[in-house]
UniProtKB/TrEMBL annotation:
Superkingdom in the source lineage: Eukaryota
Organism in which the protein naturally occurs: Mytilus coruscus (Sea mussel)
Lineage: Eukaryota, Metazoa, Spiralia, Lophotrochozoa, Mollusca
Keywords recorded for this protein, A-Z: Hydrolase, Nuclease
Protein name: Uncharacterized protein
Record flagged with keyword Nuclease: yes
Length: 511
């Protein structure tokens, strides 16, 4: 077919070249736009009747094209619609062949499997199948009898579940009545997308879907059905974006491990919406000085984008990093963590689009709860752009702070084992007791603030003694000591007390 056929719907017929012989499919297009044609009336009626019949069944050229290129096109279709006879009729597949042949960007090898997948048909030999369709349609046009083309094509069997479900041994009867399974199943994003399609087709309740996830992922809890719904829609929405903009990454995303939502009761996007509605219902005179600015902040896209950006930073970056720090046994092991984190900041401070789309950087340490889901279930282009800009500003400042404060821990620094001239073994031994976090010191200052409020007349050295007495478990140490040794220790402490107080006063004056 000539490539100019695709332009017939948009270019007036008079402007098309007249030297080329017209095909039957081009004629049908011209009839659809009510353009004159020089072909015989008998042939014109035959081709037109095919498309008119499909039009009566709710099928047009645009739908067929979408079925050929978008493997998720029928995900929201009902089971009754998928089981309509029209999808198995020769007339329908005749028009599918026509759409492929009339397009330069479509091919039978790449696009026919997509339409088979969309219509839930089992594996079909494409070349044999096309041959059958063409032979049958020759008979239709020869006998001028469309009823022959309404027969069902041979060798197509409707599938109840998708190929991943079949591979994992998941059957429709189990999905309708789920129960615990002993064997472990690799739950990927692709499997979740297939299960979403099954739920839509068979009108299965979200509570049942929650049981699917519990049993397939071997969770010790049943996920909240509302949160799970948002979680699955997030996976589906991200796949849709990838398939439209970066189709070569679809397979990689489908094979990624699915992360089920955590069991938490936190503020979600719907809660925020309800709060906003409740505030709107109040009159200005009823609002207090706190709720009024909160209302305007929520209603201002710039403030909302800033809050969302900090939420994304917490859920995707700082939250997981903190959990990594807490799980680290030696502080020097964090050097590589900081170096990798710095590279991530440098990358996304230039373009943070992937973060706004919900890309998980630390899957094992990321908590995907309702707050996480609400951050990415936003279909507002303006807010997404503002959030991306806010993230890039925040991450750029993070990068500057890391370069400044963690200079010694990065490659080339004095506390990095890989730096030339640094004795890694000696440095590791010396820092064996150094804590990876500053939680202990922060707790000490919190206790100091509390003691200063409770004992305003006590001096700092006395308060320091109380904190050290607690942290060092001095009482337990004294209880294990013999009486004579304990008496001697108390005597030494009393004798040294005046000198220690004098030294404290000198240091205080110096400070």
């Amino acid at each position: 077919m000539q490539t100019t056929r695709a332009l017939h719907q948009y270019v007036p017929v008079d402007n098309l070249p007249e030297q080329r012989q017209q095909t039957s499919f081009e004629i049908s297009d011209r009839v659809n736009i009510r353009s004159p044609s020089p072909v015989p009336v008998a042939q014109l009626i035959e081709e037109t009747d095919v498309w008119n019949y499909l039009s009566c069944m709710g099928v047009d050229r645009h739908m067929i094209h979408s079925l050929l290129i978008n493997c998720m096109y029928t995900d929201d279709w009902s089971l009754d619609k998928l089981k309509q006879n029209v999808w198995q009729e020769y007339l329908f597949w005749h028009c599918v062949i026509a759409v492929v042949e009339d397009s330069v960007e479509l091919s039978f090898k790449e696009n026919m499997p997509i339409i088979f997948e969309n219509l839930n048909y089992s594996s079909v030999n494409v070349s044999v199948f096309l041959r059958k369709i063409r032979n049958k349609m020759k008979s239709v046009f020869k006998k001028k009898d469309l009823s022959i083309g309404k027969e069902q094509a041979i060798g197509i069997a409707f599938k109840d579940v998708g190929p991943i479900c079949e591979k994992e041994g998941i059957r429709l009867d189990w999905l309708k009545n789920p129960s615990p399974i002993p064997n472990k199943i690799d739950v990927t994003n692709g499997l979740i997308v297939e299960l979403r399609k099954v739920r839509m087709q068979h009108s299965i309740l979200h509570k049942t879907v929650a049981l699917w996830v519990q049993f397939l992922c071997h969770l010790n809890y049943t996920p909240d059905s509302d949160g799970l719904k948002r979680n699955i829609e997030l996976v589906y929405k991200k796949l849709s974006k990838i398939s439209l903009h970066n189709r070569q990454n679809v397979s990689a995303y489908l094979t990624e491990q699915y992360i089920p939502p955590q069991k938490r009761n936190t503020l979600c996007n719907s809660d925020l919406t309800q709060m906003k509605k409740g505030i709107v219902q109040k009159s200005i005179t009823e609002r207090n000085s706190l709720i009024t600015p909160v209302y305007y902040y929520v209603d201002n896209p710039v403030y909302l984008a800033g809050c969302r950006a900090f939420g994304i930073v917490d859920k995707i970056l700082t939250g997981p990093i903190w959990r990594i720090i807490e799980s680290t046994s030696h502080i020097l092991d964090l050097n590589k963590v900081w170096f990798d984190f710095k590279k991530i900041l440098e990358k996304y401070s230039v373009d943070a689009t992937e973060l706004v789309e919900g890309k998980v950087l630390y899957p094992e340490y990321t908590v995907q709860d309702k707050v996480f889901e609400s951050l990415f279930l936003i279909d507002n282009e303006e807010l997404n752009i503002l959030t991306t800009e806010a993230l890039q500003i925040v991450l750029l400042n993070f990068c500057i702070i890391i370069e400044r404060q963690l200079f010694d821990n990065l490659p080339g620094g004095s506390l990095n084992e890989e730096t030339e001239g640094v004795n890694g073994k000696e440095l590791r031994d010396e820092s064996m007791t150094v804590k990876p976090t500053n939680i202990v010191s922060e707790r000490d200052f919190a206790n100091l603030d509390r003691l200063k409020r409770e004992k305003p007349n006590a001096n700092i050295i006395a308060l320091e003694g109380l904190i050290l007495f607690t942290n060092n478990k001095t009482l337990h140490w004294l209880d294990q000591m013999e009486t004579e040794k304990k008496t001697q220790t108390f005597k030494i402490a009393r004798e040294r007390a005046p000198a220690m107080l004098k030294q404290f006063k000198l240091r205080k004056e110096h400070i």
